[in-house]
Specification:
The structure is a single chain. The protein has 161 residues and is mainly beta. The protein has one domain: Jelly Rolls (Sandwich), CATH 2.60.120.10. The strands form three sheets. It has a five-stranded antiparallel sheet with strand order 2-10-7-12-5, with no helix packed on it. Strand 3 and strand 4 form a beta hairpin. 25% of the residues are buried.
Amino acid sequence: MTMKSSLENLEGHSHKLKPMESSIFHARRGTLPHAEIGTLDSLTDIPFEVKRVFYIYDTLEGVVRGNHSNLKSQFALVCLHASCRVRVRRSAHPEQDKIFLLDQPYKVLLLSELAWKEMYDFTPGSVLLCLSSEVYDPREYIRKFNQFLELTDRLAIGESF
């Protein structure tokens, strides 16, 4: 098997994300007989140990998934089939939002803790793989955007959460 590196593989990629940051990179790609393969290694490509894996599929048209932030969990998102978009919000100002198109199975979106995420525009047949640094704990979820804004405002002036 010969591994061929994508142009955006990990060159200049910082594994250490600050709270509310997001970053996209391409997974390593290789060629197998009659197939392509993408690889991700925990703690090497992904800046955390993967403790939880889940996937979103059969999402109805117009449905927005996510709509929350996490106090501790970091995520790596990969759309394995078809495509979707991910909006990452940092403030009440939509012009500061970042929107990522996940349309290739080697595109990996890293989300740090406290990133407000909205997954939407799922095309038919899409499968979004989600790798998390933490096991599910409903107590670490911030589900109301105004609470998220209050928390990020407190963090901006140096208060801890």
